[in-house]
């Protein structure tokens, strides 16, 4: 982890990251200090426990899912680069970015990738489908204990019926985008002062 | 001023033609002559309300007429037409009475017309959208309005100095600033009227509309400050006064908001306790919202702000607390009032313009004002948007800015304010009034007329008239959590962070305080789910869909569909129809193409579910509830069932009590008529009085819409509770009458209709399916007892004309329930006869023949078939008996 060893290497990495994630230098510095403050073990990586120590995250119903999103499959540590990679999903979409380099692969903060990120919060087993059980789990996290299994089940059924187009009783990514009309949700986010500014 | 209208109303001769003179003369004559009048002319008595009612009528008729031509209304906004109509009416008034008699009175406008519109706007404001864009709205409302006011004021003064404005307009800097202040505010009434027809996208609409509401505080303060400056004279204004102005702005805006929020909390808190007096709920909403407005006026705070925030604040809690009917009432009443108020405002604006005394025309002033307000509006929007776009996630693009600049309409608020000016202190008042009228007309008519083509031409994203799906609701919540989490991880205290904090606070404290306990415990998502279901059901029925009645929706056990085999069928149904709607109902199996089968299945479903006499029957006890339409039928039904049960008792006691017949008959003549309550948990033999009391006592405990069913079962055999083996879905399916379906007339009698062969099989299968295990024994018994009868009784034929149910003996399960719907007893509903049976009951007969029949007050299950059966048997057996023939002249 070269960027831990001194300001010079840190800067070089920052520049690298700035180019890669297209975030500003000050953003990187701020996020890096946040990263180190979270890193209680001071080993340059964050573990799940480090995340769980954030008090607001502990009461967030989807907190665990979000934490999971930071960890690639099979790993239980995330370095700064991985940290940034996940957070980059939440950068605002900028129109001029697309014109800059049409041949480049889609940036992480493209609409599709944002939606994919959200989709994967539901899709635990990564089979690109939200099954009824997966949906039920998320619903249960969000609604708390005041609602019976039966009621929750009927909500889940309805949700799937609404979205399901090919009759496989689960929601694929395409169905997820279509039925939720999720663009609408993002457009709505008019005044939301930016994440990652 | 309203009173003066009577002069122009064409009232002719008094009614009756006895006296040709006017009211007073008539009164005098009658006094002097001492004659009694058959009909008298009481105009002075009814004058004021009469004129108001006539005006509202004129406004409504005008509205109706405009909407006759669909093509016309899509091009010309209603507000334009109304102003034109007002001009015409004003012209008529002017011609008849040679001078203008009345105009849009500021008092009337600010106290009655404006609050109805603002109340509607505030209460139905999309809160999420509003708060998401609050930053932009506040910026435009405060900075934008200040900018407009100052720039317009100073520039007009400059133009005056240059000599473009005539010297007749006697106004100094302060007067022009005052005029700039009142002319610069975007008007909520005009914006609503125009933008509602344009349907721009939500964000654009909420920014323009929100601005028009929130700029009220700025306008009020500027207006007041300048008024005081004008009064003391510009040379006496000290520096401290400017600071006072700023302080006044803070007090007026924050104070207004606080008053609104306090009333919102009060209103929400009060509606927690209206469970027993639902009828008063809509009134409470109107009252408290209006009081918020008046209270703010009382303390000379910003009344519009107060009312808007009262509406926004209380909406969530009030909507959750009040009943569905109250919700609908509130919605429709508010919309009706607002629409009428708007109509009247525009008509009066038109009428007010036709007044010679107001026509102090100055071309320089008018044209400069028009140019300035337009230019400064555009400049202001561009500059503010440039600042805003630094912070906004979704920037406002150029097209948005054009629409926002163009949509800065001025309206009745400016007019009412300018009319309020004191002509002695502001010598140029007449010029200002004339200019304001022109500006209002120009913005409302010209800009209102052209904004639609402009929006089309610019291809502004339109509002999608789309209703939220459950998917959106879920994902939106998930996204919110997700964004909050990310902000927390990144260590930013951004928008979502604070939003989440607020929601925690709301959940832990506010909702606990302001929501009913029963509502608080329910999940918000569940509420949304139910709302969506109800909406879908209603829309399907409105479209003439064949998918059942909405009766089921009110049942608490609605959720049980999850365990239902029909789930797949629902999906099939959706896919076949290709519509996005889903009914959370038990949808019948639709075999595509076979219409007859569909119809017959609908029939089976109806036959099994339609007669629900206990449903909502409680309402009849209280004048606080509205009567249900078909209560006649329900009465009859209840009486009918009553009698059947009494018949059983009668049968058992006939031998013993034969000699007491006459006594009983006399007894019953003294007894008052009662509606017998059916909510008793006790056996039938309990006296009527206690039944009634129990009914009264139980009533408030229940939710309004919960159906009451009752259970008759055989005591020794069946446990009290419904066994768990019975699927929960079934209980909905059956209650309250468990008769198996019978074939429809068409199936039986019309051989050209298809599917006859298959249906009986299907029916019988269904019959076995829907009888719960714990009742099957009783069921079988009733079947066997029926089979012991040789043939159906003669009077069964009576109901055949109904064509609803018709069966033969081969299908034994079908026997029972077909006796119910049009039983001859149902006609015997006269009070005296009812009493007869009550007295039977009072006589204390306790034993029944076959088994002890219990009525159980429960929400679960009925087994009507069993005791209906028994009752009918008895009835048949004893119909020859002398007392029976007196009671039932069949």
UniProtKB/TrEMBL annotation, chain A:
GO molecular function: calcium ion binding
Entries under Pfam families matching the protein: EF-hand_7
Organism per entry: Oncorhynchus mykiss (Rainbow trout)
Entry GO CC: cytoplasm; nucleus; plasma membrane
Keywords: Calcium, Cell membrane, Cytoplasm, Lipoprotein, Membrane, Metal-binding, Myristate, Nucleus, Phosphoprotein, Protein transport, Repeat, Transport
GO annotation terms (biological process): protein transport
Gene responsible for this protein: LOC110498284
The protein's name in its UniProt record: Calcineurin like EF-hand protein 1
Stretches that traverse the bilayer: none
Segments forming domain EF-hand: 26-61, 110-145, 151-186
TrEMBL record, chain B:
Membrane protein topology class: Multi-pass membrane protein
Keyword terms of this UniProt record: Antiport, Cell membrane, Endosome, Ion transport, Membrane, Sodium, Sodium transport, Transmembrane, Transmembrane helix, Transport
InterPro entries linked: Cation/H_exchanger_CPA1, Cation/H_exchanger_TM, Na/H_exchanger_3/5, NaH_exchanger
Annotated Basic and acidic residues bias: 664-682
Domain (Cation/H+ exchanger transmembrane): residue spans on this chain: 56-457
GO biological process entries: regulation of intracellular pH; sodium ion import across plasma membrane
Record's compositionally biased regions (Polar residues): 805-831
Subcellular location field: Cell membrane; Recycling endosome membrane
Single GO cellular component term: recycling endosome membrane
Region Disordered, annotated ranges: 648-682, 717-746, 802-831
Transmembrane parts of this sequence: 44-66, 75-95, 107-125, 137-159, 171-195, 204-226, 246-271, 283-312, 332-351, 363-383, 403-423, 430-449
Biased composition (Basic residues): 652-663
Residues annotated as signal peptide: none
Family: Belongs to the monovalent cation:proton antiporter 1 (CPA1) transporter (TC 2.A.36) family.
Protein name: Sodium/hydrogen exchanger
